[in-house]
Amino acid sequence: MVINQFFQACPADITVFIHRRDKRYNTSREHGPSSEQKCDKILNVTFGAVIKARDPTPSGMLYGGFFYAFLMLPHLFKGRTGLTASLQHYLVITALGADRPGIVNTITRHVSSCGCNIEDSRLAMLGDEFTFIMLLSGSWNAINLIESTLPLKGAELELLIVMKRTTARPPQAMPNTVWVQVEVPDSPHIIERFTALCDTWNMNIAELVSRTQPGDGDSAQLFIQITAHSPATQNAANIEQAFKALCTELNAQGSINIVNYSQHDEQDGV
Prior knowledge:
This protein has 270 residues and is of the alpha+beta class. Helix content is 26%, strand content 36%. It contains 6 helices and 12 strands.
């Protein structure tokens, strides 16, 4: 077998991930190297090294299409943890398209088939469209597989797919968590006023959800939910006062709840 010969020709400490291209894309055939050559090695600065495995037989024809081997060379990349296959790698995916039954299950099933885990996700209906955001984790091989196959799956499902590599979020010193709920007559700049309040008090917004619902007559009601983190424990009373003043100015009904986790830990004896 050609692949067995290929493995015999490569160093034993190489970790290999093979991905066979879809036969629909194997439209071209080319002559391979001579029988004395085992394989080509094409270095790729992003993933380490990429090897195009060719048939070393005298016929020189490609064996069943192109095989791509994504390699991690421990002796060359020692200390570069971003290329270590055993560590967790992370990928953010956004899928946008027309809503229809079963579409979310199709996406999550494809993610699972690639060996990735869904760490976090959000789904929302926006008009006739749905948007599905996921944070995936997995091995180096699994993340590369989802990156190479999801665009084809997205085209098949008529979805717009956006992907971006990321890293695990390190713990941050944010002792205060702030929950805000607001109901207010809808008008331009309302959400901006509440996000500006968070910015004024150096709060990091972790989640923001808003929706409008028809009200009495022609007016519509805007509902806002915000979860934010504040690094300063002494600002709780000032934040509450500023929030209530803003609600009064906008004729809004709102509630705010601030929890100081460091105080809870002290009370629990932590």
